[in-house]
Specification:
The structure is a homodimer. Chain A is built from ten helices and seven strands. Chain A is an alpha/beta fold. Chain A has a seven-stranded parallel sheet. In chain A, α1 links the parallel β1 and β2.
Chain lengths: 264, 264
């Protein structure tokens, strides 16, 4: 569980911050991060009686990009109302299974939005995919502390199943997804032998460089730049790049950018 | 989930009552009961904005026996510190599976104790077995609202698995338990064909009659009666009597009691 980062975005209520920290401690997660928390709530939560070491070590970030920079998978949680979905959506069980797999080779961030608004579209653009707790259609929205408890429990449950060597239950194949071997060359993937995926810091740098290149090449007009930025971010995250590949790609884009600067 | 009763015993904090109700609504449970709730907390929770129908319909009971009278299985939740364990203890996953099975034929009560003390030994004597959420040994005790959310989620998860026809994951056989066929005559048990189990009201009446008989027969001394009562209650619950058998047993004990009265 040490590779699980719980990221609270814009949390308002100190009791909820405390509740999330408590559930983390119950289930063995340790890394709590907060993006733009309400200052008062954050201070109150940190100074609460019994807040403990986990909250004392919790870090605050000015923006989401920094909060997930060292993670190789970023998952948003959502109650999914009628918001237009631009991301793959996974159920909690399937999501927790994928998170567990990724935690073997790198850090995974799981984001929880503010009590009132959830995650914004900009927040979502940093996510590889979204995960929904299977609440009733008639009452989807969960209390933040309870949502975190259920998610961390389910991620921990998967990890216990894996660690204890018991069989992970077969999954009904949803959304047409195939259980393709992770190693495309056909050999069965070995545990712990998987390629390390790129951290978000690298992917974000690729995005920035590419965006600048697209701007300079006239691909993106000044109008509509915000949209283009979000679209690009989502696209890059869909790639799930390996760390080595990401470095190569970053080099390529930088080279193009250099050329554009030179010729421009 | 209509056969799941969530029973709060001695809850103190209205926010926790509200949080339990919210998680129930999220995951489709509807039957909330409270035993000796702090009056103020109970009133506040019921009158809170957005408390909703579930809390409005929630019932209050003066004692636990009445609260679980119509249930055929009573499960206590526990963080299990160093309390002397007189009950079988099951993990949440195994417990939720058994609860799901019992919900096919009758009501199941899941008890949550007070925030401060959990369930008392007397409360526990009404339970068939106890269930533990797999929290870390170093930080076992959960927030009440979060514990309820995780338990109801897990029970609901099992039900979805069963309802959707997907395979329930194989269980490692714990505590030497065998997966004996439910029908001892050897035929494979058919869904919905299982015998209905006795409701707690009947079992409680057997207990009372038997206790009186034991008292009158001199089996139980006036001293130590409270202990005998608890022991007896636990024993009767370990039997998991079918409804028809329970009626027969009750008749037997009553007959013995009548005889004791006559000769005494």
């Amino acid at each position: 569980m040490k590779n699980l980062c719980v990221v609270l975005v814009g949390t308002r209520n100190p009791l909820n911050v405390g509740a999330v920290a408590r559930a983390m401690s119950n289930f063995g997660a340790t890394e709590l991060r907060a993006v733009r928390p309400y200052e008062k709530a954050w201070r109150e939560a940190k100074s609460a009686v019994g807040a403990g070491e986990l909250l004392a070590r919790a870090k605050e970030f000015a923006n989401l990009a920094e909060a997930v920079a060292d993670c190789s998978l970023v998952v948003g949680t959502t109650a999914v109302g009628n918001r237009e979905m631009k991301h793959p959506l996974r159920g909690l069980e399937e999501g927790a299974r994928l998170i567990g797999k990724r935690m073997e080779t790198g850090r995974v961030a799981v984001l929880f939005g503010s009590e009132k608004w959830g995650l914004s579209n900009e927040d979502l653009s940093y996510c590889h995919w979204l995960m929904r707790i299977p609440t009733r259609v008639e009452h989807r929205s969960m209390n933040l502390g309870q949502a975190a408890a259920v998610v961390i429990y389910e991620v921990g449950r998967r990890e216990r199943i894996t660690t204890e060597g018991a069989e992970v239950p077969p999954r009904s194949q949803r959304r047409g997804e195939k259980t393709a071997p992770l190693n495309p060359k056909g050999a069965a993937p070995k545990m712990g032998k998987r390629e390390k995926l790129a951290e978000m810091e690298t992917v974000e740098r690729i995005g920035e460089a590419l965006l600048e290149a697209l701007r300079k090449s006239g691909y993106i007009a000044a109008r509509g730049e915000a949209t283009a930025e979000e679209k690009l971010r989502r696209m890059l995250r869909r790639f799930s790049m390996e760390a080595a590949d990401a470095e190569v790609l970053l080099g390529m884009v930088r080279k193009i950018l250099w050329k554009l600067d030179e010729s421009g």
